[in-house]
Amino acid sequence: MKKYFNIIVILFLAICCSSCLDANLEELDTYEGKEITAVVGVYHRYYDDSYIHNGSGEQAVKQANLSVADILIDKEAGTCTFSVSVPGNFPKGEAEKVSSQALVVIVNISTAAIVSPIEGAPQFGKPGDWSKPNRYKVKAANGDEQIWTVSLTFK
């Protein structure tokens, strides 16, 4: 009898605790932002000859920050321009190796947006050729898209 009572209680709770509510649910906003909002940093990556990994025998890869200035972001035109320079505290021997053809650029984009390189542009966060303006497609969460041109110059 106790077994039947437990089964009835479980069935009753399962029916009472479920919901079939389909109407009057709150509509959640879909993010519409499709902008590049900031330049986070520009980096030069290099191999460190003084450190060899014990397990692999490979040289360590290090990165050094470049100074970023004159950031201009035009949301209507879809352009982001900035200049970079080698700071005074840069690692010895690496300053002359810095080239716009092998820099790592990192930017912020709108919440829930996705950025994709187009026309052969380098991926953000990976070394790439920044000697020319690069183009990117930023897609908002609601599906809207905007093409951005990102340009870097050396001071």
Automatic annotation (TrEMBL):
Pfam families given in the database record: DUF5018-rel (PF22243)
Signal peptide per UniProt: 1-23
InterPro entries (UniProt xref): DUF5018-rel
Record domain DUF5018: where: 40-150
UniProt keyword list: Signal
Official protein name in the record: DUF5018 domain-containing protein
Species this protein is from: Parabacteroides merdae
